[in-house]
């Protein structure tokens, strides 16, 4: 079956399971991540205390690890939650926020990759490059200028994503103007979205939370569920942009409309707008 | 006087006092809690440093303790702020976020209940059950499926709330599709609200902050002020839902409209829509 | 050239540089600060880990230090980031949130003022008074009743701001119904804005982030860039208020529209609405 045909069941499973999601988040985007988790059909829980995250992870359906705040006890929190998530076989997402931007953050990333097995790693091109090859040109949390997927370098970036996926043993979701979702054999190229999405903080963090919901309700179909998640999210961004212009709004209105459209999204709306190519 | 007649004075007192509220919050909902505190007529202050919370609590008019983040020094922060609030006789609200979800969190709750006297405990049914009887079926921060107030179990839940109130010495505000606010003698049953409110993160946290404002401006009328706070908040949700549908919006638009309607709320609007039954 | 003529270049420089901004923020307003940084043309990065903030500060274009959360390792984080920012000569903003409200916070402020050189200190009148003279009547994070700039005390407050600027060696941005931006010789008095802005949490925090973007793209013109930032932000508030009323919204709608209008703001819109007097 094609991924578009499969999407019907992927959306139905979210409705059926209503996955409870443990998210380790950060002070900047925690609220948006919780709200978009609810919007796309999950129930968010966000604990930070290392002494409780094992209990909480265990009763959820999946786990999203956003490494945006690494101060104090947070790395211990991440490790205990991640290991428990592996132990109970939950779908587990890593968002390597800001990978490449600081030595300390890179060490944390290395520790996480060594200690925890991730079903999906979702990042911008700079973050994925750093996770995969320890190189990137990132300054801060946005992808570096040179780190992008274009029609010109698409073949190369697809091969790179498949390669990293094999190396790390995780589905790779590399997001940007063009998104690539890949395991070692198959890549989905997604051409949905609107450029104004990058003028909202946390569009990456929110996307990782969305991926968490999709794969936790579809643990046997992780590659396709991730691709559908990215395409649905970007499509919600397109629809949100259109409504934002009608409201004479701008980036903050777009943020609201983006979350709204993730809430309205269903298989039918998805199938009407998804632009996914298999490679 | 009936609670509806009383409400006029309750709203007037908020305008008169404009209570300065110390909130210990969490990284997910702090911003929403601060904004709704402002909207309903308070002035929010949110400190986390254990070495300053006594000073800050002392100069405020009331204190709301949300136990959403218990990592690191936060329990010390909670205890120092709570004890100071008791010492200076300020109205004090506990929101036992996620009670029942993890052993560590339950221990924190027990410590808080032992060390601090709360004017009001505001939680969903699972959280209140855990605070009162150490039992609940909660997974994460949402109430468990079986933990709800319905027309069928209403008598039983009212008796339960009165019982817990007597046991803990606090007004109990148990929120859900039907809300119950009770002390040991009297219960108010509130039938306002819209189901979509539960698709926004932090509707519980925000409600606890609203209760804080209402009781801190009405310290001699805590039971009724709490019931008015819950009914007003749910009514704001009803009005917000109606406007959201007119705007063709969804959950994120609802969040905005909810805060807006708490800002517009006054005795007249309240009296036109409140559905409160005394039991 | 007048500041209004200068503003064209100030806005152009932001477009040219697109400054990457390191913000140390707090759990209440971090998301809003990041979004408004993006809206006015910067790229936000918010690290909290003391072991990475030097690396991250160094690759940015400027640094905004909001002292809203001082618990645990945060003071170390602030000091390491601030010293690095000074070392690499980046424009550096201090927001002394809640100065005067607690002994501990005042000690933190004193340490920051002793150890870090700030290009701009942006606060409400109470906070600036405390930073400058160790006196204020503040309760919590809002300015005390008596601490405001009015047409009656304007001469006195201008002299005070110039005096504090000379004493502390920083441009002073004192915000309220009337804003004053001053160095030791020159003051700009800004009469833009709408009173409803103070019913949104974080309007001060967001403004400090906006100042950061403006001065980091205009490091050779810090006094004027700060005055333009304040006037532009207040003007965005006026336009946002107007649209909010048209939408039949209230404070939460205003927050959204405020960020939207900072995104739409440009030299032309600014020159059509700025009300800045040189003194």
UniProtKB/TrEMBL annotation, chains A, B, C:
Its cofactor is Mg(2+). ATP binds at residues 122, 175. Keywords: ATP-binding, Kinase, Magnesium, Metal-binding, Nucleotide-binding, Thiamine biosynthesis, Transferase. The keyword Ribonucleoprotein does not apply. The keyword Metal-binding applies. Substrate binds at residues 46, 202. Its EC number is 2.7.1.50. Pathway: Cofactor biosynthesis; thiamine diphosphate biosynthesis; 4-methyl-5-(2-phosphoethyl)-thiazole from 5-(2-hydroxyethyl)-4-methylthiazole: step 1/1. It catalyses: 5-(2-hydroxyethyl)-4-methylthiazole + ATP = 4-methyl-5-(2-phosphooxyethyl)-thiazole + ADP + H(+). InterPro entries: Hyethyz_kinase, Ribokinase-like. GO terms for molecular function: hydroxyethylthiazole kinase activity. Belongs to the Thz kinase family. Catalyzes the phosphorylation of the hydroxyl group of 4-methyl-5-beta-hydroxyethylthiazole (THZ). HAMAP family: Thz_kinase. This is Hydroxyethylthiazole kinase.
């Amino acid at each position: 079956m094609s991924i578009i045909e499969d999407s019907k069941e992927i959306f139905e499973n979210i409705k059926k399971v209503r996955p409870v999601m443990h998210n380790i988040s950060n002070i900047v985007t925690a609220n948006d991540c919780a709200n978009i988790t609810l919007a796309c059909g999950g129930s968010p829980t966000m604990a930070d205390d290392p002494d409780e995250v094992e209990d909480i992870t265990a009763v959820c359906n999946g786990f999203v690890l956003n490494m945006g705040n690494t101060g104090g006890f947070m790395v211990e929190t991440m490790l205990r939650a991640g290991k428990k998530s592996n132990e109970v076989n939950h779908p587990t997402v890593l968002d390597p926020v800001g990978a490449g931007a600081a030595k300390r953050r890179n060490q944390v990333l290395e520790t996480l990759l060594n200690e925890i097995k991730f079903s999906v790693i979702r990042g911008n091109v700079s973050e994925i490059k750093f996770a995969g090859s320890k190189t990137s040109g990132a300054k801060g949390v946005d992808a570096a200028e040179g780190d992008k997927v274009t029609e010109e370098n698409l073949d190369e970036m697809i091969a790179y994503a498949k390669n990293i996926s094999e190396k790390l043993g995780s589905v790779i979701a590399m997001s940007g103007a063009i998104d690539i979702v890949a395991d070692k054999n198959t890549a989905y190229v997604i051409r949905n979205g609107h450029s104004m999405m990058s003028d909202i903080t946390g569009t990456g963090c929110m996307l990782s939370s969305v991926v968490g919901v999709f794969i936790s309700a579809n643990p046997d179909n992780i590659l396709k569920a991730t691709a559908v998640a990215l395409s649905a999210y970007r499509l919600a961004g397109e629809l949100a942009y259109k409504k934002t212009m009608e409201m004479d709004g701008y980036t903050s209105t777009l943020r609201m409309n983006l979350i709204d459209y993730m809430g309205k999204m269903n298989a039918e709306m998805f199938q009407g707008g998804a632009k996914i190519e298999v490679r």
